Amino acid sequence: MTDPAISPLPEATITVHRFGLEREPVVQIDNFSGQAPDLLAKGRQADFGPAGAFYPGRRAPAQPDYLARRNNLMAEVMRRVFGFHESLRCEAASFSLVTLAEDALSPPQCIPHYDDTGAGIIAVMHYLLGPESGGTAFYRHRRTGFETVSPERERGYHAALEEDDRQFGAPSCGYYYGDSDRYEMIGEVAAAPDRMILYRGRLLHSGVIPDPGKLSDDPAQGRLTINMFLEGR
After folding, report:
1. Which of 99, 125, 200, 213 is the most exposed place for a label (fewest CB within 10 A)?
2. Strand-pair category, 89-98 with 57-61
3. Residue 97 scores a pLDDT above 60
4. How confident is the model at residue 88 (pLDDT cuts 50, 70, 90)?
């Protein structure tokens, strides 16, 4: 592996998507780290364990120290796009591996979700593999029209999900993608090696799984990404 301390930093390309009617930003940074092969190798050697009730796979701790090489870029994005003026704190960082077969998913794992209602929580997805591994899609909930779930919306949103179940039955068992009676897809970002996306955790979103039959619990074969949560004000 190359030494990330001395390897040159590639020129990053920044794209700001504003999907849907609420126009919440989704920041896409290509050529983020210049270390994708090294990070992929570390992830493939990591010790994975259960990820908890909501994530459909396994996770292993990741060190976010490689972000430091992009401190200036990150600070500018956070200030100009998200309106943060104080230093960011990394709340969690992990290698993530989607592993569950579709028939093993729980009902909440079969629909789009949000990570956190707070405006100061930024979800980070750092892709290490190409588009065949699947990116991230963003959604509008049809019954409420919500594309984000804030603290003020949370109770009403969950009441509307219960109405959805009464009208449509339980969600179809499988990784969600596209349009349905419940949700409309408003945007999508494809995976690419060393592409990072950042968005507020309150956005309704779902990982894109192009071929669930190819999911693997072997990090050398599976859908391996780095996920983080940043907190700012």
Report:
1. 213
2. antiparallel
3. yes
4. confident
In order of their start, the domains of the chain are 13-231 (2.60.120)
pTM (global) more than 0.90: yes
- The identity of residue 144, as a single letter, is T
Q: At 172, phi and psi to the nearest 5? A: -60, 140
Q: How far apart are CA 212 and CA 175, in angstroms?
A: 8
Query: b vs e for 101-133, b when ≥16 Cβ sit within 10 Å of the residue's Cβ?
Result: ebeebeeebbbbbbbbbebbbbbbbbbbbeeeb
Here the tokens at position 154 are 């949370």
pLDDT in tens, 29-57: 999 999 999 999 999 999 999 998 899 99
